Amino acid sequence: MRLSKVLRAGAVVAAASLALAACGGGSDDGSGGSEPSVNQEAQFEDGTTMAKLNQAGSVTIGTKFDQPLFGLKTLNGELEGFDVEIGKIIAGELGISPDKINWVETPSATREEVIEQGKVDFVVATYTINDERKQRVSFAGPYYQAGQDLMVKEGNNEITGPESLKQANAKVCSVTGSTPSEEILKYIDKDQLVLFDVYSKCADALRNDQVDAVTTDNVILLGLVEESNGEFKLVDKPFTEEPYGIGIKKGDTKFCEFIHDTLRKAAESGAYAEAWKNTAGQVSENTPELPELDSCA
Q1: What is the Cα gyration radius of the chain?
Q2: pLDDT of residue 219
Q3: Domain spanning 148-234, CATH class
Q4: What is the 3-state secondary structure (H, E, C) of the chain?
Q5: What is the CATH number of domain 4-146+241-282?
Q6: Cα 253 to chain center, whole Å?
Q7: pLDDT at 144 over 90
Q8: Which residue has the higher pLDDT, 212 or 27?
Q9: Local confidence band at 1 (pLDDT 50, 70, 90 cut-offs)
Q10: Any stretches that span the bilayer, and where are they (predicted)?
Q11: What was the pLDDT predicted at 18?
Q12: Which listed residue, 173, 233, 247, 266, has the most CB atoms within 10 A of its CB?
């Protein structure tokens, strides 16, 4: 299938990821790219998150394990995807090599919790920036911009966009605690919504005819379509803008500014584009550019 339309919204951010990969992403996780560079000369102001992590020589990053192209744990236990590469780029600029990253599975519903409880140092997990989440955590980025869409079975021509769901009395699957699960309620009744903890279960429900459609960000759906061997298709009618950010402890302005500097370096060096090419770019026609970064204040 052609993905240019699907990834157009995300193109801007994708580039940033690639740059990050050059700084810190590599092939140890099975992503297929070159090993990220590690800043051996990294030095930071005492008392900052950067200094703490650099001195510890390790970092704990929350990501998803079931998101093809962005964060996927393979059968051999390795992690691959664009979010993984972003995480490795940031780690590399902290002076931390990929083998010193502790990856923690972080489904949508637990992202704020693991940050608040200090179980992770930051989260890169297809994490949409919104005002509600900003009440609990801070964000660096965005590093990518996606858009919500629908995935259906290949032969389904009745569902043509979100406006068609009510008339079709379609059962729609999404993930508990996710932005898409809230946004889709603008188009369907509550009893049409089916929720699971991860999108792979939504894909199984679609395969088994328990639901008629799956909704989330287009780039996530692209990965599920790619894995379906032609069984699923993207409706290709994105109806939101979803800026992906890096979740950090609320109020950690210096860490946010460090991540922004790292993303800019990755975009300028070409590492961001390389990270995209080695992950989501394998099924995308376009390489995105780093979007305009939000204020860290």
Answers
A1: 18
A2: 86
A3: alpha beta
A4: CCCHHHHHHHHHHHHHHHHHHHHHCCCCCCCCCCCCCCCCCCCCCCCCHHHHHHHHCCEEEEECCEECCCEEECCCCCEECHHHHHHHHHHHHCCCCHHHEEEEECCHHHHHHHHHCCCCCEECCCCECCHHHHCCEEEEEEEEEECEEEEEECCCCCCCCHHHCCCCCCCEEEECCCHHHHHHHHCCCHHHEEEECCHHHHHHHHHCCCCCEEEEEHHHHHHHHHHCCCCEEECCCCCCCEEEEEEEECCCHHHHHHHHHHHHHHHHHCHHHHHHHCCHHHCCCCCCCCCCCCCCC
A5: 3.40.190.10
A6: 22
A7: yes
A8: 212
A9: very low
A10: none
A11: 33
A12: 266
Which residue would you say has higher pLDDT here, 250 or 35? 250
d(CA 295, CA 297): 6
- In angstroms, the CA 23 to CA 19 distance is 7
Higher pLDDT, 161 or 13: 161
More confident call, 135 vs 31:
135
Residue 274's closest CA among 32, 7, 69, 66? Answer: 32
Phi/psi at 14 (nearest 5 deg)? -60, -40
Q: Residue 28: pLDDT above 50?
A: no
Distance CA(71)–CA(89), nearest Å, equals 14
pLDDT score at 7: 39
Identify which of 22-26, 177-181, 188-192, 282-286 has the greatest average pLDDT.
Answer: 188-192
Q: In one letter, which amino acid is 123?
A: V
- Pinpoint the residues of the chain covered by CATH 3.40.190.10: 4-146+241-282, 148-234
Q: How confident is the model at residue 20 (pLDDT cuts 50, 70, 90)?
A: very low
- pLDDT of 46 over the 90 cut: yes
The closest of 67, 81, 75, 79 to 201, measured between CA atoms, is 67
Instruction: Choose among 94, 93, 90, 63: nearest CA to 78.
Output: 63
